[in-house]
Structure formats: structure tokens, C-alpha cells
């Protein structure tokens, strides 16, 4: 996720990147809560 965020920061304003990160985290949290399974970073699809 760090590479994704660094790339986003290089292309957009910091406030836009912060909102995008918050939305991404909210989607991850919602998926974890909905599935009932523990969060596993390795299971995330790569963004690119």
C-alpha cells in the first residue's frame, strides 16, 4: 500500500491522497467485517 500511496502523492494534492487512503481503508474494513475473516495484507490484490 505504501507504493500506491507514494504514487498517488506524486500525482495529486495531499488532501486528495488522504481522502483516497481513508476511502481505501474503509472499503477494506467493510470487507473484513462483512466476511467475518481476519484481515490478511498478503491477500490484497495488487493495485497498478
From TrEMBL:
Superkingdom, natural source: Bacteria
Instruction: Name it.
Output: Transposase IS116/IS110/IS902
| Species | Mesorhizobium alhagi CCNWXJ12-2
Task: Please name the taxonomic classification of the source.
Answer: Bacteria, Pseudomonadati, Pseudomonadota, Alphaproteobacteria, Hyphomicrobiales
Amino acid at each position: 500500500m505504501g507504493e500506491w500511496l507514494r504514487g498517488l502523492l506524486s500525482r495529486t494534492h495531499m488532501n486528495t491522497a488522504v481522502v483516497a487512503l481513508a476511502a481505501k481503508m474503509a472499503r477494506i474494513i467493510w470487507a473484513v467485517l462483512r466476511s467475518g475473516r481476519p484481515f490478511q495484507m498478503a491477500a490484497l490484490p495488487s493495485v497498478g
